[in-house]
Amino acid sequence: MSILGKRVPLRAIAAMAVLMILAVLAPALSKTPTREITLVAKGMAFYLDSDLKTPNPTLDIKAGERVRITLRNQERGIIHDFAVPVLKKSVDQLGWNESDQVTFTAPKRPGTYQYECQPHRLMMRGTIRIY
Amino acid sequence: MWTMSRRGWLQATGLASLSGSLLGAKLSGQTAGQGRHQAHGSHVMGTVGTPSLDAFNPTTFLRNWNFSELEPDARAKFYKETPRPDGTMLREYEIYAVDRDIEIAPGLFFPAWTYNGQVPGPTIRATEGDRVKVTFRNSGSHPHSIHFHGWHMPAMDGALPGQEVFPGETFVYEFDADPFGLHLYHCHTVPLKRHIHKGLYGTFIIDPREGRAPADEMVMVMNAFDTNFDVENEVYAANTVANAYMHEPIRVTVGRLVRIYLVNLTEFDPINSMHTHGMFFDVIRTGTALTPSERTDTLMLCQGERAILETTFRYPGDFMFHAHQSEFAELGWMGLFRAEAAPAT
Ligand SMILES: [Cu+2]
Ligand SMILES: [Cu+2]
After folding, report:
1. What's the A58 CA to ligand 1 centre distance in angstroms?
2. Which residue in chain A is spatially nearest to B170 when comparing CA positions?
3. What is the layout of strands, in order, in the sheet containing A45-48?
4. Which residues of B fall within a CB distance of 8 Å from A97?
5. What is the pTM of this model?
């Protein structure tokens, strides 16, 4: 068989097909998060992408809930991340216009926990409230 | 990140953005009585294209102080002024240090250490006798400080052993604005030349109580960048971005007094200078007098030295200004004033 004029062995095509089927199934097999939060980093603060007025907002999350947090860095030239130190969870350090996600299970016990940008925790930090 | 030989970058940045407009084309034929001779491609001076302006705009920086470029809400986060019973002001500032890659020529990024994400840092402006209170938060990756020029007690110096502010720490500097003049502030953590050169500096203007004559005022910081860390600068500028005012000339009005607050914060080279074409200017060294002491068209300043320049444009058209060290000029320290006739009233 040839693709774009190159001969490709049949075995490689079979392997690719298996990979493609797995890629379609994989999200359905994983634990789907019940809460999605998208944050942007801008002007040395975090904002919800749905509310660009409130810096470092408090994030309300149900105890034991599966959460996926996405951070998008909108600050040209400054590296940011998002971390929940108590859970030892963080996104990668992000350059301008990059984004990354972190998925975790919220603690079972209600209370408050800090989230922060690790390089700028003096200015970029807020509270996760578990209820 | 690019690393460059001292001479290589102009050529390289030109190649990197061939789609940008040619500066030579911009220079020619736009103003009556000037530039009728078309620029030839081989004579084009300066860089091609312009850096992104959303992180730092040299034209905005020129005529703003005390965060006046920000909307009131945003400004309130960084600056607050409170009148005091004796008629002076309490001026409170929020300054933070943060690491940032800044674009100093089209496509050329410098890994800077900044005050409030910009180089030069925000211009601070008070009147003689005001109380200045600066809350400094170090969100950078290294210990830093702010050392202000002017009268203050040793505890507020920011330069003595033990006065560095570590990452994640805060310090409040407080002092009276004295004496009136044109001053500066900069990081004073060792190794000093590295911390200053990385971008931690800004202008500190103290106005005389009686004020100065009304004028079109602007701040120019002569600075330079060592992009390959060989303790030599490869890029020179007024206000950080090489050739910024060639691409966007500084607009001034014929017959109106222009006052330039000129500060030299070039590291590694012992001196820098400013030369203006087609005019002379009056000089108030360190800004500590009300009247000028000399008249010239070329002023040399050593590291940390500064002066107020005053002039009034006689003729409409484009007037070049640049370092009189040709090398600095060719590496980015060059700009244009574009003088226009005053609108008829
Ligand atoms: Cu950050
Ligand atoms: Cu420093």
Report:
1. 17
2. A122
3. A45-48, A35-42, A66-73, A99-105
4. none
5. 0.83
